[in-house]
């Protein structure tokens, strides 16, 4: 790679991934966004990364004082040692400027002095990284769009050939804000903070342009936490490192369920577990995670609706000691708060989790319990299906079997509704239903779809009793299944025996 096109790290790993490696040396970039979107934090991280590598850097500030910058850095646990901070405008001289000049407009004198002071500092320090914050002050001093554009263009030409990478921050507050700078800058990065009705605020960024570089387009979620900005790049394409052609079917450890599924679940496929609340969907999905851990493989469970202790206790009551496998590193349980996570952050969390584990074992099973909770994390999203498709394609490309638990609204009857129709995204659909037989409410399970292989088309009784999950024999005497109110008219001999209620 040539010196001119080599990437310059931004100091933010996720942003470097979005930018295709980072910024470009000896080029000027525009970072724009309204106040509070994270421009200053991004600029400081960029300079801190350079200071770690021994590069001379300078933060030129027109809008914030040195003490404010130092305070902001301290809030993140940073030190700005090795970074020159230059305040372009002296508050006292600026306050008295209207009284000092009578033959010329004060703005003309101030703009010339500001530019001259900046160039003197550049010549003295000879930095390789520069942040100028913010262009709105330059725009005010220029007073006209033509003078402002000419001034910024002159700065860009001055920096060219000096082997320095420049970030120009623009808070978009001036009335004259337009797209003039987009044509001047090599790249434009837009930071945004859309308003949400509930939960914490969401931040996202977008690369508007980047000359000479392939970058990841579209919006990418990011956070500002203690320690700086964390960017969560979108999943752009599925991984192709592993294939499931010659891999064995994944078993649940329950003979009846595996038979119903035609021998098991194909690696790299997605399975949707659909039914009313309390019917046994989550417990059924846990069998695949438990069986994977018993085989020495790694499984990950993302719990949106249930706490860790409740989940572990419920699983142990069914004969699955998940805590033991979790301590061995074979199972990971991630409790997710729907109100505190964005869709992009969750997708990035999944990607990072499946890339590698502490044990070095391959991840074979990922469970999302439930898709209802995932929906709660993005109530205003219009493209849930596309985001789910990206995530499932990525996991499938890694040969990972994904299980999606979806609770239908309502308990019985045709009034049961599904919050999102994800059935067409899934390769396999397991349908759970309550049914009436012998004066009791029972549970039924059936496979209504499986793309990868044949499956049993019967309906079996599904029951959790005596500390285990039992799948009964195929039942044929049903009526009203498609209406959502299945009623069994067969003999009781075919049903799973149950103890009398006390």
From TrEMBL:
Its EC number is 2.7.11.1. Pfam families: ATPase. Residues 6-245, 248-485 form the KaiC domain. The keyword Kinase applies. PROSITE patterns: KAIC. One of its GO terms (molecular function) is ATP binding. The keyword Nucleotide-binding does not apply. CDD domains: KaiC-like_N. InterPro entries: AAA+_ATPase (IPR003593), Circadian_clock_KaiC-rel (IPR051347), KaiC (IPR030665), KaiC-like_dom (IPR014774), KaiC_dom (IPR010624), P-loop_NTPase (IPR027417). Keywords: Hydrolase, Kinase, Phosphoprotein, Repeat, Transferase. PANTHER family: CIRCADIAN CLOCK OSCILLATOR PROTEIN KAIC 1, PTHR42926. This is non-specific serine/threonine protein kinase. It comes from Stieleria maiorica. The gene is kaiC.
